[in-house]
């Protein structure tokens, strides 16, 4: 059973909040795994990030209820992203802001997916796991292609294609109108497909 705003605003808020987290746990995990800096693998666990976000949500759910400007899931995703950004700053310090590193935190506080993380998700579609050298080279080629795209286009691809948010959710995350989000996604996916087709032909 899905939850909407009325479910979340019921008398049993605590139980409703727990159910909401349980419903969206895997979606939140995908977000954390996509945006977690590789240097923190083994040091930061996605489940711990989500648990920290749950604790934060229990403390702030009255604030959200008073002014629910986004859907419950987008609100939970925002809290989880904040916790992940805090962990990056704690463990990596100023390196967490280095655009050449695995992640970047923009001026709006949104933790953005890096081209390296997106390339790692895509490389398996073009090579077999047995050839590590070719995979590394192809991954770099895909990363270069993603780097050539606008940062906003990479981000909307991460939201729609990898995190599997719908258009309305992506628009809320990016604070833009749904129609604008749809147009940007269509443009970004066309550019990505064109770049990947070129890579496939060059490596065939």
TrEMBL record:
Pfam families: Sigma70_r4_2. GO terms for molecular function: DNA binding; sigma factor activity. SUPFAM superfamilies: Sigma2 domain of RNA polymerase sigma factors, Sigma3 and sigma4 domains of RNA polymerase sigma factors. InterPro entries: RNA_pol_sigma-70-like (IPR039425), RNA_pol_sigma-70_dom (IPR014284), RNA_pol_sigma70_r4_t2 (IPR013249), RNA_pol_sigma_r2 (IPR013325), RNA_pol_sigma_r3/r4-like (IPR013324), WH-like_DNA-bd_sf (IPR036388). This is RNA polymerase sigma factor. Gene3D superfamilies: 1.10.1740.10, Winged helix-like DNA-binding domain superfamily/Winged helix DNA-binding domain. Keywords: DNA-binding, Sigma factor, Transcription, Transcription regulation. Belongs to the sigma-70 factor family. ECF subfamily. Residues 139-192 form the RNA polymerase sigma factor 70 region 4 type domain. GO terms for biological process: DNA-templated transcription initiation.
């Amino acid at each position: 059973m899905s939850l909407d705003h009325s479910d979340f605003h019921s008398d049993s808020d605590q139980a409703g909040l727990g159910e909401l987290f349980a419903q969206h746990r895997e979606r939140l995990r995908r977000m954390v795994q996509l945006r977690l800096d590789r240097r923190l693998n083994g040091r930061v666990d996605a489940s711990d990030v989500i648990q920290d976000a749950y604790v934060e949500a229990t403390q702030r759910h009255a604030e959200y209820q008073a002014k629910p400007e986004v859907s419950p899931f987008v609100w939970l995703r925002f809290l989880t992203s904040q916790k992940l950004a805090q962990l990056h700053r704690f463990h990596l310090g100023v390196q967490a802001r280095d655009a050449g590193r695995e992640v970047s935190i923009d001026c709006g506080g949104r933790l953005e997916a890096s081209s390296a993380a997106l390339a790692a998700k895509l490389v398996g579609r073009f090579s077999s796991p047995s050839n590590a050298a070719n995979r590394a080279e192809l991954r770099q080629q895909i990363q270069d292609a993603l780097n050539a795209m606008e940062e906003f286009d990479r981000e909307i691809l991460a939201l729609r294609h990898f995190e599997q948010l719908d258009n309305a959710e992506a628009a809320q995350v990016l604070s833009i109108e749904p129609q604008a989000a749809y147009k940007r996604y269509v443009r970004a996916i066309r550019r990505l497909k064109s770049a990947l087709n070129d890579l496939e032909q060059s490596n065939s």
